[in-house]
């Protein structure tokens, strides 16, 4: 009998494979980083072939470590960095170009032209998104216009598109030998090409970007009893494991945090921060800079929607301290360094490396460190970096309360940065509400496993999943209201200093 469910968690900086039991407990994992390719300022790419090779490697190692075979897995789920765009040749399996990552800003002129031509409002109404460099539609257009031969191949049906879930599902199910070309509504809703109400590709939106419909994958439910196919990739996953779950990473974390009721919210702290508020089957349009997105669709049930606040740079700002500035040797050291000071010493760091995402949506912004004096040290910068993670989250929470009328009474958190206890205390202080971390902090992989397990009956209902959730740690606010508002006022002033830095036609 199959007693476990596996999950591929393909993220921005690494790929991991995790195995869970019926109680949602981690049984095994393995994780490998992949190269960040930075050809020029504002460009961020990944090698899709490297990502696929890493996926096979982490699955092989995790399965071997746990002493399991493919037959021990009831199902497999996939979750992924969203918006990152891959275009490949369905005949050879070779990508035409590197994957263009969600952080990449080369499509700023495409986004600006959409607004200038009055198409932005159509995209907002149909897709729930503003025209922005963040989303996939402009990235596909860039590849079609700039990589020789791709436009012609797309018209013939040879060049196909997918976010990284689609790329992995196609390879997992055989690749050139009958690979399945599919995605789910959570990923499709991040392209600017899908109508949120019909959950189908929209011809008018496709025309805005010049994308042929035949390039696009079939959209299937996130938890899919009809399956996405079975594994045919050789090695540990060669035994035809049912592929039954597919969710974009932030929606997967929402499922992993069992936020199944309208009004429940979670915040994932990874490369960026992503706060999702479940709005139920109601499609809530944002008037305050948030995204309307699909939260999940289980089987034949109606889709559940969410409001999302997407923040481009949070955990990756800590990486920047390590890799570019060299003031820390590892992410964990940022906490120890920041604890050397009682406050930020007047320093604010706005890490707008890829412009500002929610709630500002300013591609002209760039990173800034303000308020420096000779008094300040690297410890103040480390603390300002942690505070930037928390202040950006407050920006989004404020917008979410304005849009939905829901005032948070607790924020559920997950992701790698939640291991930084000073950062989580700062988050409670800056928000003024308790912050709660679950026992299983890697809820992204867990959510993908839940989606797959529900589809095949490994878990009978969402009630089973709710019973699996347990709190590990809670942080209560300690700042006075006066200190909280004074700090936030300084942050808002610092944000203004980042604007109008890049000229966007």
From TrEMBL:
The keyword Iron does not apply. The gene is glpK. Residues 4-256 form the Carbohydrate kinase FGGY N-terminal domain. Its EC number is 2.7.1.30. ADP binds at residues 12, 16, 271, 315, 416, 420. It comes from the Bacteria. GO terms for molecular function: kinase activity. It is an enzyme of class 2 (transferase). Gene3D superfamilies: 3.30.420.40. Sn-glycerol 3-phosphate binds at residues 12, 82-83, 134, 249. HAMAP family: Glycerol_kin. This is Glycerol kinase. ATP binds at residues 12-14, 271, 315, 319, 416. The lineage of its organism: Bacteria, Bacillati, Actinomycetota, Actinomycetes, Streptosporangiales. Transmembrane segments: none annotated. It catalyses: glycerol + ATP = sn-glycerol 3-phosphate + ADP + H(+). Inhibited by fructose 1,6-bisphosphate (FBP). Key enzyme in the regulation of glycerol uptake and metabolism. Catalyzes the phosphorylation of glycerol to yield sn-glycerol 3-phosphate.
């Amino acid at each position: 009998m199959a007693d476990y469910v596996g999950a591929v968690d393909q993220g921005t900086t690494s790929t991991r494979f995790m195995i869970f039991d019926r109680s949602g407990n981690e049984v095994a994992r393995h994780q490998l980083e992949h190269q960040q390719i930075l050809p020029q300022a504002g460009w961020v790419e990944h090698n899709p072939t490297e990502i696929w090779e890493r996926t096979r490697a982490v699955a092989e190692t995790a399965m071997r470590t746990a002493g399991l075979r493919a037959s021990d897995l009831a199902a497999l789920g996939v979750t992924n960095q969203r918006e990152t765009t891959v275009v490949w040749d369905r005949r050879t399996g070779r990508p035409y170009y590197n994957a263009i990552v969600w952080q990449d800003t080369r499509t700023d002129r495409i986004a600006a032209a959409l607004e200038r031509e009055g198409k932005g409002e159509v995209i907002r109404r149909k897709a729930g998104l503003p025209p922005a460099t963040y989303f996939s539609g402009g990235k596909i257009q860039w590849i079609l216009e700039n990589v020789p031969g791709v436009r012609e191949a797309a018209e013939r049906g040879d060049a196909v598109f997918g976010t990284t879930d689609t790329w992995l599902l196609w390879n997992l199910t055989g690749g050139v030998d009958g690979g399945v070309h599919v995605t789910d509504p959570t990923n499709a809703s991040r392209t600017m090409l899908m109508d949120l109400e019909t959950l189908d590709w929209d011809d008018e939106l496709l025309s805005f970007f010049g994308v042929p419909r035949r390039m696009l994958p079939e959209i299937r439910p996130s938890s899919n009893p009809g399956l996405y196919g079975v594994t045919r990739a050789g090695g540990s996953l060669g035994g035809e494991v049912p592929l039954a779950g597919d969710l974009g990473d932030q929606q997967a974390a929402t499922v992993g945090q069992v936020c199944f009721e309208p009004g429940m919210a979670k915040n994932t702290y990874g490369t960026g921060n992503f706060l999702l508020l479940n709005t139920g089957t109601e499609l809530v349009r944002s008037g305050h800079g948030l995204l309307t997105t699909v939260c999940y669709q289980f089987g034949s049930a109606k889709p559940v929607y969410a409001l999302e606040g997407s923040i481009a740079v949070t955990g990756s700002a800590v990486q920047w301290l390590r890799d570019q500035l060299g003031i820390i040797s590892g992410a964990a050291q940022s906490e120890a360094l920041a604890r050397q000071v009682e406050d930020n010493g007047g320093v604010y760091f706005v890490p707008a490396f890829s412009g500002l995402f929610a709630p500002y949506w300013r591609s002209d912004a760039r990173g800034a460190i303000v308020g420096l004096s000779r008094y300040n040290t690297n410890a103040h910068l480390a603390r300002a970096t942690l505070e930037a993670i928390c202040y950006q989250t407050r920006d989004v929470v404020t917008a979410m309360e304005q849009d939905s009328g829901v005032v948070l009474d607790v924020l559920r958190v997950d992701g790698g940065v939640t291991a930084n206890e000073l950062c989580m205390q700062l988050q409670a202080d800056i928000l003024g509400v308790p912050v709660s971390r679950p026992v299983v902090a890697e809820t992204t992989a867990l959510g993908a496993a839940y989606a797959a397990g529900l589809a095949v009956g490994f878990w009978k209902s969402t009630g089973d999943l709710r019973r699996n959730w347990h709190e590990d740690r809670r942080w209560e606010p300690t700042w006075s209201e006066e200190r909280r508002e004074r700090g936030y006022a300084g942050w808002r002033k610092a944000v203004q200093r980042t604007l109008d830095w890049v000229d966007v036609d």
